[in-house]
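[User]
If only I could read backbone structure tokens as easily as an amino acid sequence. I have put the entry right below:
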Amino acid sequence: EFRATAEARKRPALLAEAMVDADVEVPGIVEKGKLLTLSTDEALQHKIADFRADTIEAVLEQLGLAAAQVRPAAPHWAELLVRFLTHPIVSSLLISMGMIGIIVELRTPGFGIAGGVGVGNARVEESSGEGMTGGLSGLCIAGGVGVRGTGSRFFAGGLGLSSGVTA
């Protein structure tokens, strides 16, 4: 596939293939068993790259777009929130608070604040992506409570609930 892309873009296909496949040998450049890596000067020499540019302005100039307006993109608030929630420290705190909330809820009668906090934290952790637990993707059993990812079925053993809360 990489070779076909190189051919379509009129680049040396053997060199491109040697960059992703260690079994490809290019005489005088790379031996079999090693991936090909090129410096900028080597890439220019072997026609893998068209030009050298150190800044965005230099790229635009080389492409004939020097008059183009460059507008930097700022991260959306949702992206910033997800970055915060998936930070290893925040992620581990969410999981800890969630498990403690669920355990406290099992030890006290009724469905109250602790259970809501536990289920809420587990749901936030799962929906925030690949946090510390990979989105609660395993089967975690603590204090009679099972948490199974990708559908997030919560069930409490001994409470007569087979699949009590779906988050």
